[in-house]
Amino acid sequence: MKNKNMRLKGQLRMYMQWPLIMTILLLAMNIWMYMTDQKAGLTMTVFVIIYVVIVGLLYFYNRSLILADLIQFSTQYKGIQNTLLKELTVPYAIILEDGHILWKNDRFSEIVDGREKFIQKVIPELNKGIFPKDDETRNELEITYKERDYQVELRRISLEGFSESERMLQIPKEKEYFIALYMRDVTELNSYIRENEDQRLIAGLIYIDNYDEVMESVEEVRQSLLVALIDRKINKYINDVDGIVKKLENDKYFFVVKKESYRKFEADRFSLLEEVKQVNIGNARSATLSIGLGLNTATYALSYNYARMAIDLALARGGDQAVIKDCKGITYFGGKKEQTAKNTRVKARVKAEALREFIVAKDQVIVMGHKISDPDSFGACMGIYRAAVALEKKAHIVINDVSTSIKPLYDEIAQSSVYGKDIFLTSGEALDYISDSAMVVVVDTNKPQMTECPELLKRSKTIAVLDHHRQSSTVIDNAVLSYIEPYASSACEMVAEVLQYFQEGFKLSPAEADCIYAGILIDTNNFMTKTGVRTFEAAAYLRRSGAEVTRVRKMLRNDMACYKARAEAVRHAEVYRGAFAISVCPSEDVESPTIVGAQAANELLNIIGIKASFVLTEYAGKIYISSRSIDEINVQLIMERMGGGGHLNVAGAQLVGCTISEAKHAIMRTIDEMLEEGDIQE
What we know:
Layout (H helix, E strand, L loop, with lengths): L9 H7 L1 H19 L1 H49 L5 E4 L5 E4 L1 H6 L7 H4 L15 E8 L2 E11 L3 H4 L11 E9 L1 H12 L2 E8 L2 H6 L3 H20 L4 E6 L2 E7 H9 L4 H6 L11 E6 L5 H17 L4 E6 L2 E6 L11 H15 L3 E5 L6 H16 L3 E5 L8 H8 L9 E2 L1 H7 L4 E6 L10 H6 L3 E5 L13 E4 L6 H10 L9 H14 L9 H12 L4 H7 L4 H12 L2 E3 L3 E6 L7 H12 L7 E8 L2 E8 L5 H7 L3 E2 L3 E6 L4 H18 L5
Parallel strand pairs: 9-10, 12-13, 12-15, 13-14, 15-16, 16-17, 19-20
Antiparallel strand pairs: 1-2, 1-5, 3-4, 4-5, 6-8, 6-9, 7-8, 10-11, 18-19, 20-21, 21-23, 22-23
């Protein structure tokens, strides 16, 4: 390229034009002097000519030299830039949209294997999915590579017109951009943060679940020794991690430990739970503990509040477990044994009185159970309905779909002239009835997403919950009354107890007693599982109220299609690891396949050597898992791992977006993991 074709730009061009501007000014001045004095103007002209000649010579002579110097400076400056960028201590790279590493500096080459051409093969976290989609976005993430922590920033740089000006590299116009990536080593920073975090104090609570029962099971002279041994176990466990523990009451302890100590607890999976159970000086019952910890809080007061919430959740889930609550969620440890059922019904009486007071203050009551209602849910709804009507309140029950399992019970109530036509409502109809003067009572579930109408919970200001399932991290948290008893056999058992203390002269009709009795019968598998003294007492109360055993049994009979489906599930059961039965229940021509699946799971427990059963049923686009056990395996822990829940011996889960085969393998994988971790034992 010739020099004459080269042009200066910007401020430099303006600077080089100053001689021309000065010449124009001198000429104007010269003309003014000619008008004033011709002799002076002539003299001025001579000097202007001399100035123009000198400036012209200097300009045209030095122009090429200036351009050459500018080119040399630009080249040197560019070289300095490249050197600085290449030798920059911060790892830096330029990546194409497919992840191909186009260029990288020396520091990046030292960290990353230089033989790989694609960044995702070196660091899988840096894949195309996290690349910025526009120039305004900066994506940041933290990765760990070769035992070092890096803060990574990704930025998109547009190169519009690149392909037109660049002869050596052709890029499609729609992809004329690069991804600039740089990594900042934050290993030491994270180490300091972790060290500081580990030194933070966290609060915890320890409760002895069954203190009274354990004390009653040992001679009075040995009770103090038993308490001392339990105290010693608890104190040693906390002192071993440099923590402090304070006994608040006979069965309650408060402790404070460093956060790093929690990791030790986590590593041994809160072995204190098992150590206390082993304390035996002749006591017929083993002591069990509930532990609550509050983690990752901004203040110590909040940590204590979290610990309180965690211990309440542990107790609500049946005890014998550790619950850790932090700002991210809830973690569970233990829970391998069912809480000992308390013979006293004081709590039932207190809850009955509280429920009565809430209903009295409202104009109407809306009762609902869980989706795909079963006899337990339906029977509990009928019990609360009768309680509301007895207080002369308008009451309704929310049921969207009438399953086969409740259809005989439903038809008996719906066809009776005793009840109004609006006793049963759909979700849409219930939303029209809800108001500030209405109360919502939820039975047989404490998960909002599992209720017949979750929207109803959002609109209601007064909510009561009665449930026998262990609580999970997702609960109805705005309830004014929460009655959760994991040891209870069924929600119907709890409702039957509450009704006995509800109101003097309260009486159930035979049809309502049948519904509640049916719920207990189904959930206990004909009084074979989860039955205690209070279960039979509730059944006796219902029998006195007019429940007819034969009539209920007839209503709960299955049709031939259901019976064949259950038999097929038992027939094709697969035994995994010698103790776990896994099968699939056919859903064709079966109106309520989930109920049949649960029945099949119960049947499989009658086989010698089977400790737990799992029956999968595909229904309505989901895969339902019904799990059962007798006493050795806690199926609730297994189902919680898979997003479900329930009880120690009865639990279930729902899976979406997978096949039956994938669901079976998921169960097997979960069993393998829990066996390896020691949460369950073969």
